[in-house]
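Morning run. Coffee first, then this:
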Amino acid sequence: MIPPLVYMISRCGTDDVNVLTHFFEYRYAMNSKTNEDPGHTSVLLYYLILFSEMWELPTPPYTELRDRLMDVNIASGSAFYSRRLYCAFSKEISPGCDEIELGRYDADGIIYPRDYLWNKIPILPSQASVLLMNGKLDPLTHFKYATSLFEALDTPRKKLILFDNAPHSMIDSTPFGEDDSTCGEELLASFVANNGDLERLDMSCIAKLPVFNMTLTPEYLDNFFGMNDAYGGA
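And here it is:
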């Protein structure tokens, strides 16, 4: 959907504004839907891990995060918009958190300390094996980091699979076939079923992945753009 979005944003006619408004309203509605299985994911656990293991310490002040966001062409702004939540979770005492005063409560913060293994390449037991998967179109975790980790792991029992046309989350974003199966899911299941034996890893689903295609289906055009021609006849 990126090409027609970029095209309409660049053209920016009256009709484009209406279509883009529809697009973002529909996208927001999708994100707002309640998951049918509340045990499928945990927002609390997500932020606990994010703030404990990935957040920059001490947290940068508002102005610095704002400038970082404004100085790039495309960004989700997740760090900028999560700063207040981080300060509430962590109770961090720093200029960046002191200015919003959200950590002044009696209970312990919802965060855990970083141990001696944090941000270090693990030393693997001789019997361990590692399967890494990453999409080359991943906008959140660039595949260069998966490649770097793969090269740094000191073991012959490792495998890196890069999907040319997949974005973030290999378990969800690598569909193939007629059903709801994904290649990432099949690979993970095979890895577990074979007790981590990479020689027996069933990779047959990779050859079944669909070829790269930017043509939107009528269903996508109708749902996201409310029209049957994303380029308005151009």
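The beta strands are 130-135, 158-163. Good start to the day.
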